[in-house]
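Protein modeling request. Please complete all fields; requests missing the sequence field cannot be processed.
Requester role: graduate student
Desired output: 3D structure, token encoding
Chains: 1
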Amino acid sequence: MSRHTPKESSESAIVHPPVTKSSKLANVCYDIRGPVLARARQMEEDGHRIIKLNIGNLAPFGFDAPEEIVQDVIRNLPDAAGYTDSRGLFAPRKAIMQYCQEKKIPGVGVDDIFIGNGASELIVMAMQGLLNTGDEVLVPAPDYPLWTAAVTLAGGTARHYICDEGADWMPDLNDIRSKITSSTRAIVIINPNNPTGALYSDDLLRDLVQIAREHKLIVFADEIYDKTLYDGATHTSIASLADDLLFVTFNGLSKNYRACGYRAGWMVVSGDKRHARDYIDGLNMLASMRLCSNVPGQFAIQTALGGYQSINDLIKPGGRLARQRDVAWELLTDIPGVSCVKPRASLYLFPRLDPKIYPIEDDQRFILELLEEQRVLLVQGTGFNWPRPDHFRVVFLPHEDDLRDAIGRIARFLDGYRKRHGT
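Delivered output (423 residues):
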């Protein structure tokens, strides 16, 4: 009779080293969906209702994509199963080309347009295609944090230039000049701006073009909110102001057409393309590597750009977005020690907390305490690469009654904070 000795578990004999993330992610952060959001999700699982003012996701607040766009996607779905050209279908790219003509961006052909899974994918692609280790890119502070993350992930260094709150959040031209080095490759212009809601004048844009011209910089223009404008404001695309520089302009359906989940964005290369052939070849290579962007979303673009612009009903005086902006701004600036430049565009406010009244050292901790005490979710200012812990961003998408409730809770929290700190 043979004796059988149980085989020792291989698991007990092997020591597994920890699986760590890539070192390329060491300095990458995206606090809009960061640790405070993780805590909010945990609280929701425990049965708490959280008022979310942290992300510009329109659908949960009743902002639906225009019906004609939805129907066009549905009608074309049977034809959406195959890959397209890596840059996208011809018809939506032609519609984007025509939109560029409306915006007076010169020299844009169909082959200068790349459609992506939202502008976000294309921002990452543009940085990956350009940057080598040690290259620098000028990025605004505050910024939409994907820009800093994309530069960092590509091996570059984001050099943050200050936007001046005292000048309605306009970029500080002297600060920009002071940040330029021999390693600077490009400047990022976010106009209309997220998170501040600033809208740049033509004179300012011309000054930025001149700086880029003097230092031979590529201009990356994030214009995703170019139709979300208030008080009769108009938007000028910076790429329309020159043809002797290389411009890469980003836009999409997410905000202006309330179609965040369609992931339909585009990137337009314009201006002086003669000296950028190798870079453009790199963009084509990266576009080919992901095969193509989602095809159902591509089918939404032509109808969106050519159809009724229902965003105008939302932004006009008395329109839902304009009304909610006004309510949120008035309620926030009524709170002692809170000031805010009234946004002229986008979906956000970026209020300031007077440091003498609110001596905040860790603004992420401050936002976490607000969440746990009042069940309101915001994003702290440093999450947008603002250098001081004295701001936060508010999304004004909820219905007016919910906004009043949410900002009332913020006011109660700040009242308690003042009392706790004797200010």
